[in-house]
């Protein structure tokens, strides 16, 4: 059973609210219901990723601009998707994409997807994050490791995705001890292939492991060849009602 004893400064608090970090739907023309649902009043959203074409695309997309504008007008933080390819993409490429996101869509920050996890890559990630913060005022930076990285990364990102994967792995996952030094607001879990009947169990795991930002879906990844985040989970209404009522940590 996953567990974590939190006895340091990151200890659980009844004041912490669980909310959604949405890793990005399909294009608004393909997923109009999904984008519309995000502006439903009372939906506990912490941020929504805008991913036009594995990045900002080659030119402004009016449909994405409209979808992002509706969210921002509703007070929802919209962050641009930057694929670091585990450190393989150059600093210049990432910054160029970031400029286009900012110029075209006025994003509020960035998700560095497939972020490196090893200590050796940390200086370059720090350099990139510092540049992104200089580009966007009060930028919200999410480091999308998908697993627990070297602890030094926690000082660079506003949030770290410390789990991204299948429910079959999540339900037996363990948390790194160093995460107890940080509050639950610092961590995010993204879980796919999770049946509706295990929703309560998944929420408990997130609480035990100290992550207050979540996204759970019953959609699968097609054996690694599909995108489970493209559409809403079948139990969207249920999870919104549960999380939106204020699940304490």
- The low-pLDDT segments are 1-14
Output the structural class: alpha/beta
Query: What is the H/E order?
Result: EHEHEHEHEEHEHEH
Radius of gyration: 17 Å
Q: Give the strand order, joined by hyphens, for the main sheet.
A: 1-2-3-4-5-6-7-8
User: Helical proportion?
Assistant: 25-40%
User: What percent strand?
Assistant: 15-25%
Count of individual helical segments? 7
Distance between the termini: 18 Å
User: Outline, from the CA principal axes?
Assistant: globular
Mean pLDDT: 92
| Largest sheet data | 8 strands, parallel, barrel
Let me know the number of strands.
8
Question: What does this protein look like?
Answer:
The protein is of the alpha/beta class. Helices cover 28% and strands 18% of the residues. The chain contains seven helices and eight strands. An eight-stranded parallel barrel has the order 1-2-3-4-5-6-7-8, surrounded by four helices. Strand 2, helix 2 and strand 3 form a beta-alpha-beta unit. Helix 3 packs parallel to helix 4. It is globular, with a radius of gyration of 17 Å. The N terminus is likely disordered.
